[in-house]
């Protein structure tokens, strides 16, 4: 079926240049990860400064209104919210632990010791398992009923990002060989190895409508894969540098991608057409669309020059999409 852009979609696209961005400053070093909770009322950020924070970004940008989550002793490289509970958040840290937090109290309610420096994390759709990957390319699976590691899998290739599919029966990971491995879950038997890119594959994201998988790579391309046949149906090539992070909008209509370019690209999923660009002052580490609104959170390696010379890292994040 041929895609037909509706008048309502044209109006949405026409509004993008009129929307504003809010800045949120609270971390003492660069932010590596951001994520919205399941109901969209909270946004979490994780930083090199060893902390995470939870925000209510639509209410205020005052850092004093955010909740600081302290406990890690090294960088918080990635975080993920429980898809079945809007108040529970998991953080993966280079301090060889995973922490589970209750956002209502800003307290760490579980700490799981792992074997390596953790750099990626994913929560299963049914909420019963957390997967965490470390710098040694080992993935540990945590049972959220006992908060104990139930399984570990060692890979012989560089593992960059991990995710369950929306139904939870498949587990996917991107590799340094440019491939995407599709494994059955929980057996972890390899079913497919997609030859996705010609260079290191860094990130992956599922379309919320269950139609597509998007992958981003050091080849500066984002590829869109049909989930029934695992065929590449579209390529997005707006950016010039390695793709670090991608995110689908809540309705699956838009795909945001960011890299070392000083811009975030927003493209139409069904046509590949770039419809808006958000200017940035540094390479981006993370982008995340709100689960029910056209609000895009993002953060990167921003720095600020000092009067006497040199520069200092900025621990800020931004949210694009506010009216006025």
Describe it.
- This protein is an all-beta fold and 324 residues long.
- It is 3% helix and 52% strand.
- The chain has 1 helix and 30 strands.
- The protein has one helix spanning 7-15; strands at residues 20-27, 31-36, 43-47, 52-55, 67-69, 76-81, 88-93, 97-102, 107-113, 118-123, 129-134, 138-143, 148-154, 159-164, 170-175, 180-184, 190-194, 201-206, 212-217, 222-226, 232-236, 243-248, 254-259, 263-268, 274-279, 284-289, 296-300, 303-305, 311-313, 315-322.
- The protein has a 4-stranded antiparallel sheet with strand order 1-30-27-26, with no helix packed on it. Strands 2-3-4-5 form a 4-stranded antiparallel sheet, with no helix packed on it.
- Strand 6 and strand 7 (88-93) form a beta hairpin.
- The longest helix is centred in the first third of the chain and has 9 residues, at 7-15.
- Largest β-sheet summary: 4 strands, antiparallel
Distance separating the two termini: 37 Å
Strand order in the largest sheet: 1-30-27-26
Question: What is the alpha-carbon Rg in Å?
Answer: 19 Å
Strand-residue fraction?
over 45%
The number of distinct helices, counting runs of at least 4 residues, comes to: 1
Shape: globular
Structural class: mainly beta
- Uncertain runs are none
By DSSP, the count of extended strands is 30
Amount of helix? under 10%
